[in-house]
Amino acid sequence: MGYDMGFRHWIYKKTGLKLRKNVDYSVRKKTTISELATVWSQVVIDDESTVDDHSYIISGLVKNTKIGKYCSIATNVTIGADRHPTDWLSTHHFQYNDTDNFKPLKITTIGNDVWIGANVVIMTGVNIGDGAIIGASAVVTKDVPPYAIVVGIPAKMIRYRFDPDIINKLLELKWWDIEHYELIKNNINFSNVEKAIEQIEMLKNKVA
After folding, report:
1. What are the CA-CA distances from residue 166 to residues 67, 146, 183, 201 (Å)?
2. Are 26 and 44 in contact (CB under 8 A)?
3. Cβ neighbours of residue 146 under 8 Å, at least 6 residues apart?
4. Positive or negative CA dihedral for 80, 9, 115, 111?
5. Is residue 67's pLDDT more than 50?
6. Which residues contact 201 (CB under 8 A, 6 or more apart)?
7. Which residue, 70, 54, 73, 58, is CA-closest to 140?
8. Are 126 and 140 in contact (CB under 8 A)?
9. Phi and psi angles of residue 146, each rounded to the nearest 5 degrees, phi first
10. Known catalytic residues?
11. Domains in the chain, ordered, with CATH?
């Protein structure tokens, strides 16, 4: 493990203090990894990817991808992998590795509070909405709406996590922009989403 996530989050929960971590994941090009994100050593991050607060990645490959807050990314996950030319002499990257004659990858976007199961593949340029769940071993070839649950090869939606009214409230609320130690300190009822929405609305109004 690149860093002791439990201890760092415990300190942050109690004090709000951001502790810098000594990570040993592989970064091949410029990336932005939040000090509050956790990236294990079995992860390769490439092509100016970003990982935001409180998200974690256990193992896999991330290329040219923006990952939001509070995302849970399991083992052996591939996000935004290379594409290959199909109408050139070869599909191999030796033809364009050191040149600019192959168009850059499209950005892949993972929203906030997204759970990605083990062995998932998310194709380049796909957008995963806030709150979505990607079932283990799914291959995602097209955009996933917020709070949708998708499974299979290719991935298909089986249902939404909540009713439309709740989803709209969560998207408007953007609870992930509140530091999580504040949510814990204010005794948010996490197991009751409707109650949690009410409490967070009150908390945001109080802060405003």
Report:
1. 23, 12, 19, 13
2. yes
3. 111, 129, 130, 131, 132, 167, 171
4. negative
5. yes
6. 173
7. 73
8. yes
9. -55, 135
10. 84
11. 5-161 (2.160.10.10), 162-208 (no CATH)
Q: What is the mean pLDDT of the chain?
A: 85
The tens digit of pLDDT for each residue in 13-66 reads 554 444 444 344 555 557 888 888 888 878 888 777 999 999 999 999 999 899
**CA angle, residues 71, 111, 180, in degrees to nearest 5:** 50
Cα separation, 37 vs 9, in Å, equals: 10
Q: Token pair of 128, please?
A: 């995963």
Q: For 132-159, what is each residue's pLDDT tens digit?
A: 999 999 999 999 999 999 999 999 999 9
Query: Closest Cα to residue 142, out of 169, 109, 165, 118?
Result: 109
Tokens describing residue 16? 């709000």
